[in-house]
Amino acid sequence: MDKNTSVLIVDDYKTMLRIIRNLLKQLEFENVEEATDGSEALAKMRAGNFGLVISDWNMAPMTGLDLLKEVRADARLKHTPFIMITAESKTENVVAAKAAGVSNYIVKPFNAETLKGKIEKVMANA
Amino acid sequence: MPDGSPPGGPDPSPDGARIETAVRAVLGSMSGDLTVVEAALLAELEGLGRTVARAKQEIASLRVDDITLSHIPSATDELDAIVGHTAQATNEILDACETLEAVAGRISGAESDALATAVTRIYEACSFQDITGQRISKVVTALKAIEARIDQVVSRFGAATTGLPPPCSEAPAPAPAETGETEGRRLANGPQLPGGGVSQADIDKLLADFD
After folding, report:
1. Contacts of residue A23 in chain B, CB cutoff 8 Å?
2. What is the value of ipTM here, to two decimals?
3. CB contact under 8 A, B197 and A90
4. Does B99 share its domain with B116?
5. Prediction pTM value
6. Nearest partner of B149 among B72, B77, B75, B79, judged by Cα
7. In the A/B pair of chains, how many CB contacts fall below 8 A?
8. 4-aspartylphosphate modification sites (chain A) (predicted)?
9. pLDDT tens-digit readout, B135-162
């Protein structure tokens, strides 16, 4: 797992951004940026070079699922590993995210081990 | 002929009096020709008319404005305050955690590991703020839907009492494509109650099935 990878975390709750950032810091990821909805994240991704996106689902104006679809439709960004971390725990949500090309899916509340395991898995497949 | 008056005497409201007068006039004009069954039926109608009039009066006395102008806005303000206070408390907990992490970095061995593990557990637990915030948002949405329905009932009731036609029945909800609603928005339901969603283990199995 390359700890120099730039990670973009996307969540409309500032405390959640802070928690995920601190957990990533424990995993020795130092290059972490934040966005508070899908459209801000998409602008940052188009302007930057991120090796991993960790996104919430339920945000406005652009949701995490819509961000995922935009990313997968963008020629330059489409292979970016994308982990959804969300409270959306219905089967239809997981199926829709998978159909849109999500790399992995974590349901809130989650633990640090789950986050670590999913990051290792998607980075290994990247 | 049965009286048909409900217990408690005649309805004193203007509507009730009008209905009673009309029904009595009909009964009076027909009394010679009525069978027992028809008379009983008319008495039932008279009682029904009184019940409708009483219901109208009771709805009018509910002071619905209190609900839409005071109770629901007050409840949503309180819920917003809960979200604000829990966010503030969570941030203070996170401040303390970051201080502890800095201390853990200055010590070594089992004590440092124990401190780091404890801090990680606090981070995990702090994600409650996100979940409770989303749950409260769902409650606020429900309250606003109730408020809209109350407005609708009052509007229909008001039109009925002034002799105006009631508003047309609700138009069917437009299709997502017409509103511009995305799949992401349509499926954004927030946290499920216990047993309502799938577990992380089930999600992992589901994802594995796709691979």
Report:
1. 120, 123
2. 0.86
3. yes
4. yes
5. 0.74
6. B72
7. 123
8. 56
9. 998 999 899 898 888 888 777 766 555 5
